[in-house]
Design a protein that fits this description.
Layout (H helix, E strand, L loop, with lengths): L1 H5 L3 H5 L9 H5 L3 H10 L1 E6 L3 H14 L4 E6 L2 H13 L7 E4 L2 H9 L19 E2 L3 E3 L3 E8 L12 H9 L7 E4 L5 H13 L3 H9 L4 E3 L2 H10 L4 E6 H10 L3 E4 L5 E4 L2 E4 L6 H12 L1 H8 L23 E3 L12 H15 L3 E2 L6 E6 L4
Parallel strand pairs: 1-2, 1-3, 7-8, 7-9, 8-14, 11-13
Antiparallel strand pairs: 2-15, 3-12, 4-5, 5-12, 6-9, 6-10, 6-11
Helix pairs in contact: 4-13, 5-14, 8-10, 10-15
């Protein structure tokens, strides 16, 4: 049942939009007036920490429907995205029209600090309440946070099915090799998952101490974490974004994905239209498309699980379900960004994790400009 609730993307991945792409704006529910205004602007700048493979189908479909809108897609890691966007805005330089990131806490901080403008997409009624804040921030996906392991080094029958079981197996030395996980000191999403773990489970620090005993390898990038798991450099991956994990498993059958049975965090990539957007109508039009049924199906082709509740496999049950725990898009995420609290949380983590190996490779690529799609 857990897989059905959290990983029901197969049907969506096989589905195709039956309406011609030329009808994209109409399908998305956008008004013809908005579409005309966006096409007059003729440009759209997006800052995101989502990979090219995941976004290209959506960008391609949007460009086919609106060939007069040039899209500049800049991919940065979550911390770089935040710092660059804030610095450019402060200097009154050209910056993103649409900001889209999985670092939910940083996105909420930007919205709270006045960097977003109010916009109500026509698809709002199809979104769960936890995915919307202030009619400014919108969760576009619903992605579980999972375990991944290499079955060449860890027999599936011995693999942990929960956080508690993972702790026990690590403490008893039943998992060979080292653990791969995010470095919350350097990764905004890594800090988000670590802080949410602490809210979800009282024994989180005991688990981190057990991870520390494996001389873990720490990462800023999910992609490099999965690359090293596939290469056999590490055995077990902790707190990995499920969409990337499922894609990696599809390409490498030695990788096994586990949805923790005690609780599974569910994160969403939050998008907002910049308050200072130079092309605000194009940004609104693209947000409409991402939240449309067609846009959600295109995202699901690369395992970015849809957030819409009216799509099969879309949305997730509420926190009361006891298994799926959506990270709510809202002000509660600001608490862990308090400097003193953040410093204390990181000090606890460093003490628990001990000596470790940091991976310094980055998967950020700047200034990717999409021309006419193939």
């Amino acid at each position: 049942m857990l897989r059905t609730l959290l990983c029901c993307v197969v049907a969506l991945c096989l589905a195709t939009a039956c309406t011609p792409l030329s009808q994209t704006s109409e399908d998305a529910g956008s008004s013809p007036k908005l579409a005309r205004a966006a096409e007059r602007e003729g440009e759209l700048v997006i800052y995101a920490n989502t990979g090219d493979a995941e976004t290209w189908p959506v960008l391609t479909a949007f460009r086919r429907a609106h060939p007069g809108i040039k899209i500049t897609f800049r991919r940065l890691n979550s911390a770089e995205l935040y710092e660059r966007y804030v610095a450019e805005t402060a200097a009154n330089k050209p910056t993103a029209d649409l900001v889209w990131s999985s670092a939910m806490d940083l996105q909420i901080k930007l919205i709270n600090d006045g960097y977003a403008q109010t916009y109500v997409p026509p698809q709002k009624a199809a979104l769960p309440t936890w995915a919307v804040w202030k009619n400014q921030g919108y969760g576009v996906t619903a992605e579980p946070i999972v375990f991944v392991y290499d079955k060449r080094r860890l027999n599936p029958k011995d693999a942990p099915k929960s956080h508690a079981e993972l702790r026990r197996l690590l403490e008893t030395g039943k998992i060979p090799g080292s653990v791969a996980t995010f470095d919350p000191d350097r990764s905004a999403v890594g800090f988000l998952y670590y802080s949410q773990d602490r809210l979800a489970w009282a024994d989180t620090m005991a688990l981190n101490r057990a991870i520390g005993a494996t001389a873990p390898k720490l990462y800023e990038s999910t992609a490099t974490m999965l690359d090293d798991l596939s290469a056999g450099d590490t055995t077990f991956g902790y707190n990995i974004i499920g969409s990337y994990a499922l894609e990696a498993q599809r390409l490498d059958h030695n990788l096994m994905v586990v949805f923790p049975a005690d609780y599974t965090l569910v994160m969403s990539r939050i998008a907002f239209v910049s308050a200072g957007a130079r092309h605000p109508n194009a940004a609104k039009l693209f947000l409409d498309f991402m939240l449309s049924k067609q846009g959600q199906v295109l995202l699901a082709r690369n395992s970015l699980r849809p957030v819409r509740t009216d799509l099969k496999g879309g949305g997730v049950p509420g926190p009361a379900d006891g298994v799926a725990r959506p990270i709510e898009v809202g002000p509660a995420l600001l608490a862990d960004l308090d400097q003193m609290r953040r410093a204390r949380l990181l000090a606890d983590w460093r003490k628990a994790i001990g000596p470790s190996r940091k991976d310094d490779r980055r998967r950020s690529r700047d200034n990717i400009v999409t021309g006419s799609p193939p």
